[in-house]
Write a sequence for this structure.
């Protein structure tokens, strides 16, 4: 009885294009050191046989790695590992209130869109009541020119005049509403979900479709039971870590 190839079986479990899945697989091999810097990797035909796919699919996946500067191809000599993926886990998703208010050093915020009097989207945290209208900003956070967070924030229109305009492009979402006179945060909740980048996220964060991301929803409720802030963030999985304070 012929044993089923585990790589083929794994590829069949996802609707993500085979070449994108294989690019992630090969990137992991380089990251782990299985394919070390300077090593020659198997030929396109050998990889195609190992993974049960066409040689064109392998070439497409290697194109991604070459574009990322991880491999280098030489005619008549083969393909060699040039560098390991950069692991810059500097972005921490805090789970306590004070941690959420900490500014990230060297980070910049770009406002991609700004809409007024919009409705509140679905609140998975299931706390608080919706205000009559919200200011909706889509923001992209970057460090040293590399985007790491795409965020949609919704701020209660009634408190927007109390927030200095330059804060919308300078401070984290929770800090926008943390020190407003007459507003007390009586309830706040955060939900973190691990997912995969879709087409839009791929374009905005410059990552591949299907790459791991962390989706974070944060909600802040005031003393009247109204949601004064809802923030939906998508973090690059290769640049963030989640820290839990246990004691």
């Amino acid at each position: 009885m012929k044993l089923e190839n585990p790589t083929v079986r794994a590829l069949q479990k996802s609707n993500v294009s085979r070449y994108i899945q294989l690019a992630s697989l090969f990137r992991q091999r380089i990251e782990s050191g299985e394919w070390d810097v300077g090593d020659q990797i198997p030929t396109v035909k050998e990889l195609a046989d190992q993974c049960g796919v066409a040689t064109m699919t392998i070439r497409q996946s290697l194109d991604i790695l070459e574009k990322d500067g991880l491999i280098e191809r030489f005619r008549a000599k083969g393909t060699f590992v040039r560098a390991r993926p950069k692991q810059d886990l500097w972005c921490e998703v805090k789970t306590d209130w004070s941690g959420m208010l900490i500014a990230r050093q060297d980070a910049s915020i770009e406002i991609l869109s700004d809409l007024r009097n919009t409705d509140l989207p679905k609140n998975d945290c299931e706390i608080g009541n919706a205000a009559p209208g919200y200011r909706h900003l889509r923001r992209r956070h970057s460090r040293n020119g590399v985007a790491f967070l795409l965020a949609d924030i919704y701020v209660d229109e009634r408190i927007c005049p109390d927030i200095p305009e330059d804060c919308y492009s300078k401070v984290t979402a929770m800090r926008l509403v943390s020190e407003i006179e007459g507003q007390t945060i009586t309830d706040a909740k955060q939900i973190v979900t691990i997912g995969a980048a879709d087409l839009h996220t791929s374009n905005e964060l410059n990552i591949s479709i299907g790459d791991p991301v962390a989706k974070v929803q944060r909600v802040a409720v005031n003393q009247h039971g109204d949601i004064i802030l809802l923030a939906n963030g998508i973090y690059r999985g290769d640049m963030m870590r989640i820290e839990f304070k246990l004691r």
In short: The beta strands are 71-74, 78-81, 91-94, 107-118, 134-143, 146-156, 185-196, 212-222, 227-236, 240-243. The mean pLDDT is 86. Helices lie at 6-11, 18-32, 44-51, 55-67, 97-100, 173-177, 199-205. The chain has two domains: 6-81, 91-243.
